[in-house]
Amino acid sequence: MKVKRVLKWSAGAILLALVLAGFIAYWTSTNECDRRTTPSNPMKAIVHCEYGSPDVLTVVDVERPVPNDNQVLIRVRAASVNPLDLTIRGPLLLRPLLGMRKPKDTRLGVDYAGTVEAVGRNVTQFKPGDEVFGGKTGALAEYVCGLADRAIVLKPPNMTFEQAASVPVAAITALQGLRDKGKIRSGQKVLINGASGGVGTFAVQIAKSFGTEVTGVCSTRNLDMVRSIGADHVIDYTKDDFTKTDQRYDLIFDLVGNHSFSERRRILNPNGICVMAGIGGAGWHDGIGKRLAGELNAYVASRFVSQKFISYIAQFNKKDMMVLADLLQSGKVTPVIDRTYKLSETADALRYLEQGHARGKVVVTLD
Ligand SMILES: NC(=O)c1ccc[n+]([C@@H]2O[C@H](COP(=O)([O-])OP(=O)(O)OC[C@H]3O[C@@H](n4cnc5c(N)ncnc54)[C@H](OP(=O)(O)O)[C@@H]3O)[C@@H](O)[C@H]2O)c1
Questions:
Q1: What is the pTM of this model?
Q2: Nearest CA to ligand 1 atom 15
Q3: What is the 61 CA–ligand 1 centroid distance (Å)?
Q4: Quick one: average pLDDT of 203-215?
Q5: Residue 19: its pLDDT value, please?
Q6: Mean pLDDT of 43-61
Q7: What is the pLDDT of residues 308-364, one digit of tens each?
Q8: Which of 218, 225, 229, 286 for mutating ligand 1's site (highest number of atoms within 8 Å of CB)?
Q9: Ligand 1 atom showing the smallest separation from residue 219 Cα
Q10: Residue 51 neighbours by CB distance under 10 Å
Q11: Other C-beta atoms within 10 Å of 52: how many?
Q12: What are the distances in angstroms from CA 127 to CA 79, 358, 361?
């Protein structure tokens, strides 16, 4: 009896402590906007001090980074936006990571291309003047600074800064999803659902570079574009349901997740793989909750069948950035750019992306 009471009181105390800790974490969460001083060596950067729509984005002067011995300072010439950047809206589930009341990291952007401005004294791979591209948080700014041995590689000379800046997140997602999770092999039949977006346009071309037969699923207005980047077949999702054909695939690379486990399983070969990479175009759209639940269900249900349903989060590494640079250099992959905005128009770029119907990548240029 006594033990039961002690346990009950302890559980109550722990619960109260957790609620209090959450409350304190919420009210004390702050960010650099509350401490900002006039920078001594300023550069322009996109900043969001609060969570909210793209309206919260501002261009402000912040301190220009100084490279340490192992870093490279890059003058950004172009950057691109990704669904990832829409975390500015502060989804509640991610707030323990992003900051409870305000974003911990106020800077935005990851993908960039630019010119090396300065290198640390231990850096041998790069020199001032080199044209590079890569991924680094805070890329929507005049300068970024990153470790030389991370995701920075030389820009192929046949690429513009805009093209190179559109590559990192989207293309690495396509490469790692198809190659590492999907085990793509020459001669396979591959279906890409969401073939016309940022990731999809790279996925079509990368899948073709592996010698596969590619079917791209997109809407009517994008059929020609998806064909033009190499898809052997296209399916218009506004007219046909790709799960209702007699065709069978070895690999489904799914960026939309709008079909159930059993529907997708039906069109997979017995040892086929479905890589669940995304839940549709950027931004909030109807049915996201249902799609997430469907992907979770597919992941669990596939443990009991011969086909595999896998999800993943892409990770930057230099080796894969070099693979992408080679694909760009050889002409096997050419970025598809939908729209280009100036740094001061980044909010418009995100507003457009958020509609979820970008045709390829949305790029931001800097003078
Ligand atoms: N796993 C990872 O590590 C990772 C990394 C990056 C992105 N992602 C996810 O991958 C997804 C795609 O990213 P993204 O950068 O490609 O987004 P995006 O550029 O915003 O994708 C837009 C495209 O989605 C297409 N689309 C929308 N609804 C569709 C449908 N029902 N069927 C087929 N296509 C449809 C649109 O085509 P229409 O205009 O023709 O509708 C548009 O071309 C997102 O959910 C993103 O969060 C995952």
A1: 0.93
A2: 198
A3: 33
A4: 98
A5: 73
A6: 97
A7: 999 999 999 999 999 999 999 999 999 999 999 999 999 999 999 999 999 999 999
A8: 218
A9: 40
A10: 18
A11: 13
A12: 21, 35, 29
Tell me which residue has its CA closest to atom 31 in ligand 1: 256
3-class secondary structure for the chain? CHHHHHHHHHHHHHHHHHHHHHHHHHHHCCCHHHHCCCCCCEEEEEECCCCCCHHHCEEEEEECCCCCCCEEEEEEEEEEECHHHHHHHCCHHHHHHHCCCCCCCCECCCEEEEEEEEECCCCCCCCCCCEEEEECCCCCECEEEEECCCCEEECCCCCCHHHHHCCHHHHHHHHHHHHHHCCCCCCCEEEEECCCCHHHHHHHHHHHHCCCEEEEEECHHHHHHHHHCCCCEEEECCCCCHHHCCCCEEEEEECCCCCCHHHHHHCEEEEEEEEECCCCCCCCCCCHHHHHHHHHHHHHHHHHCCCEEEECCCCCCHHHHHHHHHHHHCCCCCCCEEEEEEHHHHHHHHHHHHCCCCCCEEEEECC
For 106-125, the pLDDT digits (tens) are: 999 999 999 999 999 999 99
If you take atom 32 of ligand 1, which residue's CA is the nearest one? 194
State the Cα–Cα distance between residues 261 and 353, nearest whole angstrom: 28
